[in-house]
Each structure stands twice: as structure tokens, then as C-alpha cells.
Amino acid sequence: MRGVFPPITTPFDRASGDIAALPFRQNIERLLAAGVSGIVVSGSTGEAALLDADEQRRLVEIARDAMTDGAWLIAGTGGESTRETIALTRAAAAAGADAVLVRPPSYFSAAASPATLVTHFRAVADASPVPVLIYNIPKYTHISLAPGLLQQLAGHERIIGVKDSSGDAKNVAAYREAVPQWTIVVGGASLLLTALELGCQGGIVGVACFHPGLCVQLLREFEQGHRDAAGALQERITPLDKEIIGKLGPAGVKAAMDAVGLYGGPVRAPLAPLSDNDRERVSALVRGD
Known about the structure:
- It contains 11 helices and 8 strands.
- By secondary structure, the protein is an alpha/beta fold.
- It has a single domain (about 5-285), classed as Aldolase class I (TIM Barrel), CATH 3.20.20.70.
- Strands 1-8-7-6-5-4-3-2 form an 8-stranded parallel β-sheet.
- The longest helix has about 35 residues, at about 225-260.
- The chain is globular.
- The two termini are about 35 Å apart.
- The model has no long low-confidence stretch (mean pLDDT about 95).
């Protein structure tokens, strides 16, 4: 795995609130045409916590039909129990996912220990028919996965990497050192160039949901040794990440997608829609005003 992977939003019908299948497929086709290396469904930006198991499976099925050869389809399958996570993982694999992204259980985060987390991830990987990416997202789970924990999982044949959404460059560097054999991708576009310079493979970044070309071009410039050009692109990307994804979450990403002609649409309650002022601000940022 290497490249840019949009953690695509889940489009909902404005009237019924159900998954809007056609816009979902059209969004994927446009993102793939922009050169991304794959798609992540049912991630944090995809409002995974607000989807039921059947909706998560359905998203994988729809996405599978839209994928192009060589592009990765990755499904978020984190659950609150090991049993649920295994069931979600198997369902995603059966529906066509190439790999799964598994966060730590979070409801009982205060009681989680490195030992229980290692046992959880190993059990999920043992049962998974497809490769597994560990997902470090302390903003939502209130659990920070230590580099040493990753080292304990490094010998498992189906665990191939980690997505780090800590937002901390030092943590990214510690992960890179701890598991040099793994794929490491960042979850924040603000750190995309830093991650590449540290030897990571790319990013699963929300900015790629509405400006995939900027993120893909940054990766290409870096690979071609054009550090100044890559740096200039990073300067354009960072405000989009901090102001839209960091401050406004899925609602902000959806508004940005609407602004560029993709289908963003509404978020699902209890998430709130953006105010008119925030929506105008998102449109201005996307335009580069």
C-alpha cells in the first residue's frame, strides 16, 4: 500500500436519510479518476459510528462495483467488542474489501490495557480473511496506541500497517522506527509531507475527499525529488486540513465536497449541519480565497 486514500464520506438522501447509493458511486469514480490509490469506507469521516452493520456492508458492496484495477478498497470495521469487530471484518471481506482498518474499542477505554488491546487486535487478525491496518485515533477513542504495542503485533502475518491520526509528527516518527516493515499512513493531511520524509507510505486524509489532486500531486512531486514543489503544495493543503477537517469534521468535509461539485449532503443526527457562515467559509477555503 502506498499513496493517497480518501476516507470517503457516507452520502445520505436528503429526504429519507438512507444511504444515497448513486452519489456514493459517482463520488468514488471521480476520486479514482483523480489518481488516488484507493478508497476507505466507514471511517471516521464516513460517520462509521452512526452506521449500522448492514449499512457498513452495503457501502463496501457499492464501492466494490466502482473500484478500478489496482485500487485498494479499505473498510473501517472497528467495534466495541472483539466479537463485533470480527463480524464486521468478515462481512466487509465478504462484500469485497481488500483490507480493513480497525480502531481500538473505546467505550471502556479507561479499562483498556496494552495486553487487552494486543489480545483484541490479534484475535481480529486471526479471524480476518484480508489484511488488517491498525487505526490510532485518540481524538475519538481516548486511547493512544504506543509504539511498543505495535511491535508486539508486528509478527502477525495479516497485520500490515497502521494509520496514525494522532496529529503528532513525533508519534509518526516513533511508529516508523518501531515497525519498519509495516505500511504507515497518516490521518491528517497537515503531516503528509512530513510523513513521506520520514519514510511513510502516504495518507488516509480527509482533504483528498474534495481536493484529491492536490494530495496526489504532493506525493508525485516528492517521489520525483521536487521538495520545493511538494512543500508549496503542503502549504496549500494544511489550512484545508486544519480549518475544514480539524474544526468542522464530517460536516465540513461534506460541505467542501458540495463546493467542488461532488455530493456531500447532510450529516446524520446527532451531528449538526454547518451554519451558513461556516458553509461560506468552507467554500472560500476550497476556492483558495
